[in-house]
């Protein structure tokens, strides 16, 4: 009841301030952006072993998704509508309503800047947890990590962002207990409390300290990236999830990223990850990727090797094995 009262108060306060604010700023034009991606992947066992999201089809030219993002800011008010059509978008959750639905909602929210310091946002939003995202344009590697694939992908709710200084920011929000769905469990409602502390200790270095908790789970997450020099970048994601379910206990993982740009056109990168599915096996994965740019088109050749402490995969003789390797070639067009 206290959460409901607090949420209602924030909502009414926001409407009050919006209604009485005299906003004479000119509106920005409607922005349309997005991406299109496709790929071919071959697992050297002849089987589709990859257990993580994105780029999983075996030996075929396959679809990623068509991603269309609409956004506009008028004065202090902003809206974002982000739609995806294709397996990459549909795989992010059940928010499309059915596995065979023609499209899914990735983001759908409105925001209002109460001041230069405080912004209120409500709707269905890409999660603040983790390093990688759904859109292939924002990831260096094409295939997904174990940490990313175990979610969450999106959170529905309302949040307040506080821009404390150029180097410090704070987000506090109330979110649905249902991951990746814009409808809440009617018996639990908006019972997840989430927060993010963002820091920029020095130029080029960003740190995000994240935490979310509710009746079903709790998860802490640290995400950081440092642009050491113009060509050299390193990133890190550490996260642990604890589930309050007798049949599931959660996971813990660490993923590291190193990227180096040899020119304005070509960059090379490696991702190493260790992941403990506390209900199943432990995994390690190393992924070598290149990004080769031709204007808005990025070609991503990728070689990946995964291993497990259990025989979680299948080899070329159809026998269970503890490792696999694969090659993928992806094309991502952004607009």
In short:
By secondary structure, this protein is mainly β.
Chart the SSEs and their pairings.
Blueprint: H1 2-20, E1 31-43, E2 61-74, E3 77-85, H2 87-90, E4 104-113, E5 118-126, H3 146-149, E6 154-163, E7 168-175, E8 192-199, E9 205-213, E10 217-227, E11 232-245, E12 248-261, E13 266-277, E14 282-294, E15 297-308, E16 313-314, E17 320-321, E18 323-334
Antiparallel strand pairs: 1-2, 1-18, 2-3, 3-4, 4-5, 5-6, 6-7, 7-8, 8-9, 9-10, 10-11, 11-12, 12-13, 13-14, 14-15, 15-18, 16-17
Task: Explain what this protein looks like in three dimensions.
The chain has a 16-stranded antiparallel β-barrel. It has a two-stranded antiparallel ribbon with strand order 16-17. It is mainly β and 335 residues long. It has a single domain, classed as Porin (Beta Barrel), CATH 2.40.160.10. The protein has helices at 2-20, 87-90, 146-149, and strands spanning 31-43, 61-74, 77-85, 104-113, 118-126, 154-163, 168-175, 192-199, 205-213, 217-227, 232-245, 248-261, 266-277, 282-294, 297-308, 313-314, 320-321, 323-334. It has three helices and 18 strands. Strand 10 and strand 11 (232-245) form a beta hairpin. 8% of the residues lie in helices and 54% in strands.
């Amino acid at each position: 009841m206290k959460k409901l009262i607090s949420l209602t108060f924030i909502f009414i306060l926001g409407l009050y301030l919006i209604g009485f604010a005299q906003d004479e700023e000119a509106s920005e034009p409607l922005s349309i952006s997005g991406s299109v991606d496709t790929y071919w992947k071959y697992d050297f066992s002849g089987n589709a072993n990859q257990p993580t999201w994105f780029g999983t089809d075996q030996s075929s030219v396959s679809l990623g998704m068509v991603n269309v993002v609409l956004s506009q800011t008028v004065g202090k008010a902003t809206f974002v509508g982000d739609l995806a059509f294709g397996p990459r978008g549909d795989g992010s959750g059940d928010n499309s309503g059915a596995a065979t639905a023609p499209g899914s909602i990735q983001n759908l929210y409105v925001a209002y800047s109460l001041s230069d310091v405080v912004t209120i946002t409500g709707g269905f939003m890409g999660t603040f947890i983790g390093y990688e995202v759904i859109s292939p344009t924002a990831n260096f590697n094409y295939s997904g990590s174990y940490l990313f694939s175990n979610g969450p992908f999106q959170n529905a709710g309302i949040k307040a962002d506080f821009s404390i200084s150029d180097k410090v920011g704070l987000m506090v929000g109330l979110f649905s207990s249902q991951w990746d769905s814009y409808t809440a469990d009617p018996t639990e409602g908006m019972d997840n409390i989430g927060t993010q502390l963002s820091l920029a200790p020095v130029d080029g270095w960003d740190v995000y300290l994240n935490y979310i908790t509710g009746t079903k789970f709790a998860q802490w997450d640290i995400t950081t990236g440092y642009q050491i020099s113009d060509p050299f970048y390193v990133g890190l994601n550490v996260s642990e999830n604890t589930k309050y379910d007798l049949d599931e206990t959660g996971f813990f993982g660490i993923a590291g990223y190193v990227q180096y740009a040899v020119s304005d056109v070509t960059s090379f990168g490696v991702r190493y990850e260790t992941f403990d599915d506390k209900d199943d096996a432990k995994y390690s994965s190393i992924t070598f990727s290149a990004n080769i740019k031709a204007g808005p088109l990025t070609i991503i050749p990728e070689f990946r090797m995964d291993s497990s402490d259990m025989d979680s995969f299948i080899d070329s003789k159809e026998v269970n094995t503890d490792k696999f390797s694969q090659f993928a070639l992806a094309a991502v067009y952004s607009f």
